[in-house]
């Protein structure tokens, strides 16, 4: 699929307006990549709020029927979020704007997160088995690797209707390069397969809507695998199942990155009476749902929160009081988070003030978003939807610096 440039052209006569790619009177011209990026941000923000609130409610006491309903809603929202991310990645790959991320990730935690992300039909069991020789920490583009594997598994499930799925991870080395080999296959016995087919009816006919969805997923798997420098192929037949293998290049870290807050570091975080952290945080977010969600997450740690809706209000708040840290959305009306951060850093230089730790909040986890945050003067960033454990870890790391 080719992407074209579009512009919005207005007819000065006022009689008719049209969409075209003309040059005269053109007021804006966006590539489909840019348009999808903007659309992705607009979609991810309410989805992040929905997911965050659902997960917050799911941590409380619920009746079994209520919990099942909320878990289904949570799974559906995550499926929609993955589709938005997939379309965004496809657009960036098509236009050559995708950037490979090489960050350390904990393999077994990564696998656990994949298990939580899978939206599988009732009665399907997915088994992840990690070879003992796979190290705890690897370096690679774990986000896009997740997209490839999740889409591959969902394609397999939709086509085969299998009841058990084995995903094995192992390390291969060729000419000094390291690869993560992932085998996906049905490990059900024939008796279980027959019972499942009888229970589910005729699974040979796939609805048109499902075919369209599988089409998008196939494109994501092929294009992202090629972008990552990997390979994907059917690896032959076993007695009872087809196995697909996915091979993706990874690297071994030169040193282990410690992500936990060590006792001597934690001592640097200010304390209140009773042992709670007396941390004052400025939260800057224009979306009401996200702002409320993050505020609740921060209050669960007994941190004091001042919440404002844009950069102008943030600068006004900083004039009247001191904060230990700021959480800053990068896209906001009136004054966005990047420009707000630049003004904060400029003020600190002029007045000789100590730098305020600033954590950016972005709609995507892409490397370019992180680069923009750091270039503007931020200390770190988190992507939406915001995972509470990751948010707490980033905040504690910045407070300890």
TrEMBL record:
Supply the SUPFAM superfamilies for this chain. Answer: ATPase domain of HSP90 chaperone/DNA topoisomerase II/histidine kinase, CheY-like, Homodimeric domain of signal transducing histidine kinase
User: Per its UniProt record, what InterPro entries does this chain match?
Assistant: CheY-like_superfamily, HATPase_C_sf, His_kinase_dom, HisK_dim/P_dom, HisK_dim/P_sf, Sig_transdc_resp-reg_receiver
SMART domains named among the record's database cross-references? HisKA, REC
Looking at the record, the residues that make up the Response regulatory domain are 280-399
One family name in Pfam for this protein: Response_reg
What catalytic reaction does the record list? ATP + protein L-histidine = ADP + protein N-phospho-L-histidine
| Source taxon at top rank | Bacteria
What PROSITE patterns is this protein classified in?
HIS_KIN, RESPONSE_REGULATORY
Protein's name in the database: histidine kinase
EC assignment: the record states 2.7.13.3
> Listed GO molecular functions?
phosphorelay sensor kinase activity
Spell out the Gene3D superfamilies in the cross-references: 1.10.287.130, 3.40.50.2300
Residues modified as 4-aspartylphosphate: 329
Keyword annotations for this protein?
Answer: Phosphoprotein, Two-component regulatory system
- Per UniProt, residues of the Histidine kinase domain are 38-252
